[in-house]
Amino acid sequence: MNDGSSEDMIVAQDGREAASGSASGSARRARTCNIGFVLEQALGHITHTKNLQAHVQNDPEVSPSWALIDFKAEGIGARIPVFRSNWSVRAGIRANRQLAAIARTTRLDVLFFHTQVPAVLAQRWMHRIPSIVSLDATPLQYDALGAFYQHEAGPRWLETIKWHLNRDCYRAARQIVVWAEWTQRGLVADYEVPDDKITVIPPGVIVRDWERKDQRRAESSMVRILFVGGDLRRKGGHLLLKAFRELRTPSLELHLVTKDAVPPEPGLFVYNDMQPNSAELKALYHRCDIFALPTSGDCLPMVLSEAGAAGLAVVSTDVAGIPEIVRHEQTGLTVPAGDGNALTAALRPLIADPQLRLDLGARAHRHVSRYYDADKNSTRLLSLLKAEARTSVGGRDSKSSAHERR
């Protein structure tokens, strides 16, 4: 099927594997692990991909092949009903196609799927090549948040088939990586996954890139609240606007980074074209004092790691994995999703007390630096993949030697 999407998103192994056949090149190839990365390209997973690619290119032990699975349905595919409407079908077809192209030139030692969506219909590859599957939420957890993502569960018969496919995918994986303990609990409770098969490795951000170069001071002349969320309503921006209007004074500003249009009003600043990871966005984090994300539907938003790395006092909701990064009254404040009054009440003392902001921001920074640093967590992830790859190669070599002896 030619759906007109950019299947050129396959990125072949980098120049390390394509080096000349010299003795030094052979030695280098002997030390590298051929890892296939099959990565969903939707929402925050795009940023996760960029962070992972930046880390992989600095690891001489990894020879990567990238299969980036585009979310959009374009061209002919946009006119085919099931392909157009079902992300799992699109992702599965694209993953199979790209893996077949990679396999024509490269013998992979291990596959890494993020998320499980492209893996579910690519299980034939998982049975051929040792695989690790990574996810931010299980399908049932996503269904529970579905209303906020414009997603609805299908009829019972279809959901039963989907459950079996996902359960079998998790069984086929050698190991499973999850972004949060919340996800781990869902796998164990709902998909028969043994707890010891799961490793929690959050994505995080490159902390040093988001840190302020100078120390924050306990100033109160102007307080700036920052919100970063493309979908204003799902991320709770409308509730934040209401709280801001109740709390507004001449010394309070609200800065919204969003794709949605927002009418102008006093003290409000809207940024519709701010790019992820840009210098302008980082500077805005550094200028602000409070980060507010009263989201109704999220798994583990990357922006909370960014805010913590920037040393901001954070207010968010007790949804999904968020309480693991925003620990109430320890590394920030959490409120019930959809509760505008609780949001206003949480913001009020932060606006009034600069020392409280500094204390929560410092604790958030320490917490993110320890658990949500992309450099550290990418190293952990690559160590897991390399260990699996070497086990795979060792087993393959043993079988080859036994065959030769026979």
In short:
The protein is α/β, with parallel strands linked by helices. It has 17 helices and 13 strands.
Descriptive report:
- This protein is of the alpha/beta class.
- The chain has two domains: 230 residues, 3-Layer(aba) Sandwich (Rossmann fold), CATH 3.40.50.2000; 165 residues, Glycogen Phosphorylase B (Rossmann fold).
- It is built from 17 helices and 13 strands.
- It has a seven-stranded mixed β-sheet with strand order 1-3-2-4-5-6-7, with helices on both faces.
- α9 links the parallel β6 and β7.
- α2 packs across α17, α11 crosses α15 and α13 packs across α16.
- It is globular.
- The two termini are 44 Å apart.
- The N terminus and C terminus are likely disordered.
Mean pLDDT: 88
Give the low-confidence spans.
1-30, 400-405
What's the structural domain tally?
2
| Number of separate helices | 17
Q: What's the number of extended β-strand segments?
A: 13
Task: Give the distance, in angstroms, between the N- and C-terminal Cα atoms.
Answer: 44 Å
Shape estimate? globular
For this structure, what is the CATH homologous superfamily of the largest domain? Glycogen Phosphorylase B
CATH secondary-structure class of the largest domain: Alpha Beta
CATH topology of the largest domain: Rossmann fold
| Largest sheet features | 7 strands, mixed
The share of residues in extended strands comes to: 15-25%
Strand order of the largest sheet: 1-3-2-4-5-6-7
Per CATH, which architecture of the largest domain?
A: 3-Layer(aba) Sandwich
Structural class: alpha/beta
